[in-house]
Amino acid sequence: MTARHRITVAHGDGIGPEIMTAVLRILEAAGAPLEPEEVVVGRAAYEAGHPTGIPPEAWEAIRRNPVLLKAPITTPQGGGYRSLNVTIRTTLGLFANVRPTVAYSPFVHSLHPGMDLVIVRENEEDLYAGIEHRPTPEVVKAVKLVSRPGSERIVRYAFEHARAHGRRTVTCMTKDNIMKQADGLFHRVFDEVSAEYPDVRAEHQIIDIGAARLAAQPERFDVIVTLNLYGDILSDIAGQVAGSVGISGSANIGATHAMFEAVHGSAPDIAGRGVANPSGLLNAAVQMLVHLGEAPTAERIANAWLATLESGLHTADLHREGLSEREVTTEEFTDAVIARLGTEPERLRPARFETRRVAVPAPASVAEAAETVGVDVGLRWDEAGRDPAVLVAAIAAALGDRRLRTTLVTNRGVQVHPGTAPTALLTDHWRCRLQPADGGTTTAAEILDAVGALVAAGLAVVGTDHLHRFDGVEGFSSGATG
Ligand code: NAD
Predict the structure, then answer these.
(1) What CATH number corresponds to the domain at position 391?
(2) Do 413 and 396 lie in a common domain?
(3) Which end of the chain, N or C, is less packed with Cβ atoms under 10 Å?
């Protein structure tokens, strides 16, 4: 007898319980070797005073079992609540968000019948790291954090996913023409990792034109791997273009845990009426089975579902005159899928999954020689009509005969020194780059001494970022944009 996989099951809010009941019935009918452990998370837990929507006993189960199948939950309005999804994602280290988006034309209306792609989105880093500061009254900063191991892991996952699912091309999307450090690192890692997968075609596109192409010609994409924010936006574009947001599932994958859910929300407007489409959660469950190494069962279910779509038995959200045979309830749709277990679609491409589980090794650590070559000092300064020359003179006076000198001043990223007075809007936040006059290296102690001199002279230091070179390559932007 096959070993059974213990999974945590959360029924969620709104239509959640209805679609979860439907999906569990189909899983059982298909003989999926699962042992569900049910937990209550979401609205009831929020209302019971758990700010993350997850009571301690639910956490225990979620941590104990490597897989969580979660129905949508209703996010409470108002302050004091934390996003349940973000909490689970960050606590369990679910680094990859995997969203297949397929057009099931002609049975589900789509403008792009040939669309069949997967977006692999980095799920932890980027602007979602939540590192934001307001250094001065006029300016806020959000840190775009991109790590080499984080990039390597997601890119490798995308290639492994491509191989396991017989996909041919992985497209990386970044904006490295502008963010040369952050997006540049992601692109560089993509180029390095792709060389290990000669059987998969690798290409890079700048995110803006890539997103435009995704909207206009989605059928030309296969697997897309990208950073967190871009992935968030691209996933919704893809879902919208396919015309099937309601039937897509998504996987959140980590090294030890994974969470599977529908892309849509808890649909409170139709909750309790028995008309919701369980397909999004069912497709997530299919992804779950493949992840658990149960590809044959995943295929049985996916093909029965495709055959049901072909039969024209559609829930209200998909029902269209001319395309559908009959509008059915959640229960009738579920019965129809179960009745078709063991059959395959006739016109839609049958699902085929490999048993090979997608796993990525821990990224190798990098040992590059680092040297410190200066510091960017953030200053709040609102004097002398915001004339940069006056600020530079004040810094020079404060530094006296120290080795560090001002080599660059920017305001909103625009170089204002050296050079002519800019016509750009100037704010109260200035970034002043101090580097040794002789172009050599410096130390943290020398930097602190120089920064201390600025403070002693009455300049308002609001932040510092040290400048490093790694194996001789500058690890900071030139700052001379605009
Ligand atoms: P929604 O996805 O719940 O609903 C949008 C529209 O699509 C509604 O008209 C709804 O009736 C319809 N719809 C969605 N799923 C359907 C299905 N399976 N069958 C038939 N029709 C379906 O989005 P929303 O209304 O913006 O959000 C409702 C709640 O869900 C909010 O509290 C939101 O925070 C939450 N939400 C949760 C998740 C999650 O748990 N992962 C994701 C998105 C939204």
Answers:
(1) 3.30.70.1570
(2) yes
(3) N
111-137 per-residue burial string, b: 16 or more CB within 10 A, e: under 16: ebeebbbbbbbbbbbbbbbeeeeebbe
161 Cα: distance to centroid of ligand 1 (angstroms): 28
Whether 22 maps to a domain, the answer reads: yes
Q: Does residue 364 form part of some domain? A: no
Final residue before a domain boundary, out of 299, 319, 354: 354
Query: What b/e readout covers 289-326, taking b as 16+ CB neighbours within 10 angstroms?
Result: bbbbebbebbbbbbbbbbbbbbbbbbbebbbeeeebee
Angle separating helix axes 330-339 and 16-29, nearest 10 degrees: 10
Q: What is the CATH number of the domain that holds 291?
A: 3.40.718.10
Ligand 1 lined by 10 (C-beta under 6 Å): no
Q: Is the CB of 477 under 6 A from ligand 1?
A: no
Contacts of 401 (CB under 8 A, 6+ apart): none
Question: How many independent structural domains does the chain possess?
Answer: 3
For residues 277 and 342, state if they share a domain: yes
Nearest CA to ligand 1 atom 40: 72
Ligand 1 centroid to residue 266 C-alpha, Å? 4
Closest-CA residue, ligand 1 atom 7, reads 267
Last residue of a domain, one of 242, 271, 298: 242
Q: What is the pLDDT along the chain (482 residues), one digit of tens a residue?
A: 568 999 999 999 999 999 999 999 999 999 999 999 999 999 999 999 998 899 999 999 999 999 999 999 988 877 677 788 888 988 999 999 999 999 998 888 888 988 999 999 999 999 988 889 999 999 999 999 999 999 999 999 999 999 988 899 999 999 999 999 999 999 999 999 999 999 999 999 999 999 999 999 999 999 999 999 999 999 989 988 887 667 899 999 999 999 999 999 999 999 999 999 999 999 999 999 999 999 999 999 999 999 999 999 999 999 988 889 999 999 999 999 999 999 999 999 999 887 766 778 778 777 788 999 999 999 999 999 999 999 999 999 999 999 999 999 999 999 999 987 667 899 999 999 999 999 899 999 999 999 999 999 999 999 999 999 999 999 999 865 43
Position 147, amino acid: S
CA of 244 to the centre of ligand 1 (A): 13
- Predicted TM-score (pTM) of this structure: 0.90
75 within ligand 1 shell (Cβ under 6 A) = yes
- 264 within ligand 1 shell (Cβ under 6 A): yes
Protein residue closest via CA to atom 5 of ligand 1: 267
**Has residue 99 been placed in a domain?**
no
Determine whether the shortest distance from the Cβ of 297 to ligand 1 is under 6 A: no
Give the structural domain span for 157: 111-242
Question: Does ligand 1 have an atom closer than 6 angstroms to the CB of 72?
Answer: yes
Q: Which of 374, 389, 394 is nearest to 437 (CA)?
A: 374
Looking from the CA of residue 42, the nearest atom of ligand 1 is 40
